[in-house]
Write a structure and sequence with these properties.
This protein is α/β, with parallel strands linked by helices. The strands form 3 sheets. Strands 3, 4, 6, 7, 8, 9 and 10 form a 7-stranded mixed β-sheet that branches. Strands 1-5 form a two-stranded antiparallel sheet. About 30% of the residues are buried. The two termini are about 35 Å apart. The chain has one domain: Maf protein. It is built from 6 helices and 11 strands. One of its GO terms (biological process) is deoxyribonucleoside triphosphate catabolic process. GO terms for molecular function: dITP diphosphatase activity; ITP diphosphatase activity; metal ion binding; nucleotide binding; XTP diphosphatase activity. It catalyses: dITP + H2O = dIMP + diphosphate + H(+); N(6)-hydroxy-dATP + H2O = N(6)-hydroxy-dAMP + diphosphate + H(+); ITP + H2O = IMP + diphosphate + H(+); XTP + H2O = XMP + diphosphate + H(+). Its EC number is 3.6.1.66.
Length: about 240
Amino acid sequence: MLIRKCFVPCDHLSSAQSLKTIRNSSASSEKRRSEAEMSGSGGAMRAFPRPVTFVTGNAKKLEEVRAILGQSIPFQSLKLDLPELQGEPEEISKEKARLAAVQVNGPVLVEDTCLCFNALNGLPGPYIKWFLQKTGHEGLNNLLKAYEDKSAYAMCIFSLALGPEDEPITFVGKTPGKIVPARGPTDFGWDPIFEPEGYEQTYAEMPKEEKNKISHRSRALSLVKAHFASAGYIFQTDGSA
């Protein structure tokens, strides 16, 4: 697993040496992985004393997740101070789930989103947050100014860790589209510059209900819901989730 703590994603994929292994495989991790796979594939039913903790401090993201999940999965939200990591998207997400499960000492669900430009071999990818902060919507468009190919895909990765000793399980959703000049409300990240395939509206211009049917987030969450339905987890709730 190639990940390191990083606060300035300036050289993503520029050198294999820029990534450092921070977690080695061991007998105990293999045991955790086996247990996690059993619990998600018809193994023994597991009960938990609290709902799943969805780790986020983003109110808009939380609103979407609640709208998509409804009452299908009992969860509560919590903002945690997790380190920023560098590496491949799924490994970043899994490591964040491990760290969050230790802090919460219970089941957690973490999410990472990527906006990947095909002309740039997947960049900005998991570093879209920093690219957006530094360049804005116009700057993101300018990254593709020299390229005819404006195609891109939005990717969402949810990682579920059932506890500190469990190997996280990942769920990935993708929506293809293209990068366009910003249109629509600008209060939710890069939504104004992403036009999903088959639509003439950006994410920002779409009605919420329509976006939540086809978004990268909804596609990943549909896999999360299917996993919970088949695994038969039992969560004690107090009605506050």
